[in-house]
Design brief:
Length: 59
């Protein structure tokens, strides 16, 4: 798991999204965790995420 300051992520978001494909990335602001980057390794991961989190796919 990698923890980064929000300011660092703002400078190069793409780098940290690519990193999130391989490991957890926690965003830190003023010393506290405030977010979590989720990377999708492939399109199947994206579809799985949609199926679980999009109300249109829930019955």
């Amino acid at each position: 798991m990698k923890q980064i300051q929000i300011g660092e992520a703002q400078k190069d978001l793409v780098q940290f999204l690519l990193l999130a494909q391989e490991e957890d990335v926690i965003l830190i602001y003023e010393g506290k965790p405030v977010g979590y980057l989720v990377g999708f390794a492939d399109e199947d991961d994206w579809i799985d995420y949609l199926m679980l989190n999009n109300p249109q796919f829930q019955t």
